[in-house]
Amino acid sequence: MHAPTGLALTENRIVRQCNLRFAEMFGDAVGVFTDMPLERLYPSVKDYEKVARVGGDSLRKTGRYSDERVMRRLDGELFWCRVRGTSLTPDDPFRKGVWSLADLSAERPVVELTPRERDVAILTCQGRTSKEIGLQLNLSYRTIEAHRARLLQKFGARKLPELVAKFSGMPL
């Protein structure tokens, strides 16, 4: 209950139990989150569904999943969050799971991004090249370069390593 990171036990992507830090992070009392669908904590239904696709594949293969993503507090405020999870039922990955969540908002403020910019930003942080990202997102590498150029401008970065450092909350 008093762990320094947010913890949640889920069944079928519904919170069954959470600790104090999880409740504080998302903006209400522990009891409010009991039986709450996780969908309420995502910026959009599209984001929620995307994580199900990508996360489900990883959970089926390894039983584990982790990423950094934008989440939504109950008051609507968006924030960056590091999410790590383990499925207790890898054959049915979302049936039962244990999740840890860390609020990254102090190190990484949310900048308004389109869903595609968010995809490109996440894959860039994973060290993927424009060509690799283009293949994964079914876009040309030139389109990915255009998205990266807009990201550089939005974050006030001069070069890609500086942009990745800003995404990661690293001191420059």
* Uncertain stretches: none
The profile of the biggest β sheet is: 5 strands, antiparallel
Report, as a whole number of angstroms, the end-to-end distance. 35 Å
Q: What is the level-2 CATH architecture name of the largest domain?
A: 2-Layer Sandwich
Number of domains: 2
CATH superfamily of the largest domain: PAS domain
Tell me the overall shape.
globular
What's the Cα radius of gyration? 17 Å
Strand content: 15-25%
- E-strand count: 5
Overall CATH class of the largest domain: Alpha Beta
Task: Look up the CATH topology of the largest domain.
Answer: Beta-Lactamase
Query: Helical proportion?
Result: 40-55%
How many helices? The count is 7
Order of helices and strands: EEHHHEEEHHHH
Write the layout of secondary structure elements.
Elements: E1 6-11, E2 14-18, H1 20-26, H2 30-33, H3 45-62, E3 64-72, E4 78-87, E5 97-103, H4 115-125, H5 130-137, H6 141-155, H7 160-168
Antiparallel strand pairs: 1-2, 1-5, 3-4, 4-5
Helix pairs in contact: 4-6, 5-6
